[in-house]
Task: structure prediction
Amino acid sequence: MNRYLTAVGIIVLVFAMTLAGEPKAEEVFPSFNSHDVVHGANLTWRDYVDWWNKTEKTPFRGDVELAPNLWADAIARLKPAYVYTHGVNIVIVRSCLDGNEEGFYVALGISSGPGPNDEQFTRMVIAPQAGGTVFTFRRRGHFEGPKTAESTEASLGRVSEASGAEREAAARRRIAARSALETATNGHHFGIFMPREDVLSFTPDVEERARAYIKSRPEDIPLAKYPLISDRDIESYDWTTHTLTVDRSAIRRIRTPWVWGTPFVVVADGQPVYVGAFYTAASSQSCPVPVVVADGVLNRTNTLVIERAYPAATPDWLANDPRSDKRVKNALQALGRLKE
Result:
């Protein structure tokens, strides 16, 4: 009971400071670091998506209570009563008295809007960050929905008290292990490969690496041993629209991209042909290389459209279209997957 009363005092004070024009939660909550909380919320969301793809294999839900073993360290340090998703956002409930919630709300940078029953929420901005915005919130009502299983820790291979460096190293090992399991050989005529180095974590060094790769030549990017999407996944490739029809399992391997894009390399008969990027429609940043707008598992189709650029191609870019490279066309023709 004392913990809940203390939490209420913290949230009320943060609300009061926000109204007074001093929106820094760190001043009243020493263990609160807005950058760490946003980073932790992104890690929590990423692990939730991983768990859902591996265990549920059903249309994705954005209203699920997350078991504690999915909480990133920065979230767990806030000692939540419980944590749940609200659309593509993370709600950290510090107290729930008389059926009404108070706590912190992190609107992720990849989110395109709020979740269900949003009219019940009152939010006040306390800390905008590159990867999302932290709010204090009050909700007239409380969460009612399913909860992830406690077995998520084993399925994700996660150590709850690991340091940030250990977590990132574990994430890289999981990515490498998953790639090794997805295909038995490396003899593909066509493939979409991810870089060997991490381009998925939400950290400044990864953002810098991803931006650099998007500007690089394909042959200069060290690639993963196995493709993210291989010729074995492709049912057809429409050359006019550059639309791939793939097995649904291939769609589930694609991670929700950050606003700066997640780079990939298209490879044909062992030759890196061009650099592209998975992109989110929530991004306001343009991208000159071919893009696949794939907002994670929210895009529940079995087609991927490789656009010339994002948000739209200029005449100069259209005149120099790497998607039309003959090496790609020849490889697809040899596989019998090409539609013209």
User: Anything to note?
Assistant: The CA atoms of residues 94 and 103 lie 5 Å apart. The longest helix spans residues 34-55.
